[in-house]
Amino acid sequence: MALVGENGSHDGTRQLLEKAESLTGLVTVVDTSAMSKVVGRLHRMAFGRQMLADYARGMPVSTRSICVLDIDEPFLEHLDQESFTEALRRLDGGQFFAVAATSRPTYYDLLAFEDDNRSFWNLELQITSFQRNPLKYYLFFRNVIYREQRALTANFDILCLSAFNGLCLYLPEYYALGSYLQPGSSANICEHVIFNRSVAKASGKHMVIDGALVVPMPKEHGKRSLPGFLWQRTSKVARAVLSRFGPKDR
Known about the structure:
By secondary structure, the protein is α/β, with parallel strands linked by helices. It is built from nine helices and seven strands. The protein has helices spanning about 15-25, 40-55, 75-80, 80-90, 125-130, 135-150, 170-175, 190-205, 225-245; strands at about 1-5, 25-30, 65-70, 100-105, 160, 165-170, 205-215. The strands form two sheets. The chain has a five-stranded mixed beta sheet. A two-stranded parallel sheet has the order 1-2. Strand 1 (about 1-5), helix 1 and strand 2 (about 25-30) form a beta-alpha-beta unit. The longest helix has 20 residues, at about 225-245. About 25% of the residues are buried.
């Protein structure tokens, strides 16, 4: 069973999902449009993911695992079935509360990563502080973000307290212990860090990034030269403006 959060798209996504729901019975569309009223990107994401988590906990169906997956990138197109099956087997062992994917050509999801020695909980604030100065903005990516992404790129396991990277498998009994909305949590902390911290605390266990469970790195997160970086960021702002003020009936 796949639960898919749909938060008010205008490109036919909702209709496509509802058709799959009626034809196959394997997809359940969960209306998460209430998240659009929440202020702050990370807090908004936390609110939407909590809606899905609450729905999943209310389902009577017993399951072997819960897979949290972003579907805005072609992850499944490149996902190796044997590696995914092996990750499920490792999860069943109960040593970890979750198994997360790595990515190629480099690991990318620093916002969601935290171990016993490193945390990027304030990365969103740092990125925002440099956005008004294009050169400093690029240098921060080159000297900090790209470097840390390379450091986490490995074909071996990485033990941690939090990770996501587009795909993460949880044991249901541990997933039920977590919450994306923790009282007192900063709105600038990634929702996955908030959730995984709560599971790690409740379970007394770590999770692991599986070096063999590989998804493609989204192109926008890849290392770029200064001209390519500036063009990418300018294009992203332009798309955001067009989507906000452009026609809604697409």
